Amino acid sequence: MKYAALEKSNFDKFINRLIQRKKVVAPVEKSNNQYSFEPVTSASQIALKYIPTILPPKKYFMPQYETLAEYDISQGKQTMQAVVEYEEMIIFGIHTCDLAGIQNLNVVFSSKPYDPNYLTRKNNVLLIGLECNDYCDEYASCHLMGNDLPNGGYDLFFTDLGDYFLVHINTVEGEELISGCCNEAKPEQIAALEKLREKKRKIFRNEVHITASKIPEIFAKSYNSKVWEEIGKKCLGCANCTNVCPTCYCFDVEDEPDLNLKTGKRIRVWDSCQNDPFAKVAGGEDFRKLRSERQRHRYYRKFKFPVDKYARFFCTGCGRCSRTCMAGINLKETLDSLVKENI
Fold first, then answer.
1. Which residues contact 219 (CB under 8 A, 6 or more apart)?
2. Mean pLDDT for each 10-residue chunk of the chain (343 residues)?
3. Euclidean distance between CA atoms 67 and 82, whole angstroms
4. 223 torsion bin: left (phi>0), alpha (psi -120 to 50), beta (else)
5. CA 170 to chain centre
6. Count of CB atoms within 10 A of residue 331's CB?
7. Mind spelling out the 3-state secondary structure of 124-181?
8. Pick from 159, 155, 180, 181: which is nearest to 169 by CA?
């Protein structure tokens, strides 16, 4: 591993260098303790201590609205031209839970059939992580999911150690970004990093009474659990939980004609398994008619199905689904209820 130390007095210089190279996106404070990944033009706009943003950085890899193709029938025949929309950028300040979310999406869209739109966009984005030191909130479960510490998926990774950032250089591109702004880390600085992470092990606790390795076993027994009925009675069907999730990737494809009815485009838009029409098919049959069934499906898509297919959880522990749920459905409480039911 290669580490460098960036003095905080040089942080503005570093960010300015990034801005001169490419579009830079970073967490920005909004209001009421809310944060959002947005383009920035100076280091002063960046929130270095923040709870997870309203939407994850997924929105830059899989936009809410994305043109896939354009068509033109003005010459008497239909022509369809594929479109790949992308923008070169650097995303700064990504927490480990969101880095894990991006890694999960990479696995999905790199599996057959490959998604060229996603992969092209991914290959034009540089990622700079930022460690959560001691400011998680009551909704996060990153320790349970193994995402409280960095686990790759970035070009650079920043850890705040007081007067300086310790920077893990993970790629050649990351080394080019940091070159000239910092010095090679000293042994005592690396020791300070280890001391911080030892402290984190006491702060970031597993608040659900189960270890991650046992979660698939619990879900193997819980398909007919009464817990789903209980949260189904609460659920409003608003789909907030899936809209803010860093690993949900369901989408619909729609054609949007222009007013001349001769040209238009085909777009990909976010969809959700929590929306009532999602599982409806021709003839009006609905495979998940009840909200309890849709909530159960959502949990299984985080803790069981992807483990079977990709050998990894698709919950990153960010806490967004619980934080944004208008009905107060809490992921950690749901897991605990399932655990108690199966003990």
1. 299, 300, 303, 304, 338
2. 92 96 97 95 96 96 96 84 96 98 98 95 98 84 92 97 96 94 93 92 82 93 96 96 97 95 95 94 90 98 96 96 96 95 84
3. 9
4. alpha
5. 20
6. 26
7. CEEEEEECCCCCCCCCCCCCCCCCCCCCCCCCEEEEECCCEEEEEECCHHHHHHHCCC
8. 155
Closest CA to 58 of 153, 159, 195, 168: 153
pLDDT digits (tens, 9 = 90+) for 242-255: 999 999 999 999 99
Please report the sign of the dihedral spanned by the C-alpha atoms of residue 272, residue 255, residue 258, residue 72: positive
185-235: pLDDT as tens digits: 999 999 999 999 998 888 877 778 889 999 999 999 999 999 999 999 999
pTM of this prediction? 0.94
Q: How many CB atoms are closer than 10 A to CB 138?
A: 11
Q: What is the rounded CA–CA span in Å between residue 150 and residue 161?
A: 16
Characterize the bridge pairing of strands 65-72 and 79-82.
Answer: antiparallel
Coil, strand, or helix at residue 77? coil
Residue pointed to by tokens 């609905």? 286
266 burial (CB, 10 Å; 0-12 / 13-18 / 19+) is middle
Query: Which residues are within 8 A (CB) of 181 and not within 5 positions of it... i.e. 6 or more apart?
Result: 6, 10, 13, 14, 17
To 10 degrees, what angle do helices 291-303 and 227-234 make? Answer: 120
Dist. CA 240–CA 255, nearest whole Å: 25
Query: In this structure, are residues 175 and 140 in contact, taking their beta carbons and an 8 Å threshold?
Result: no
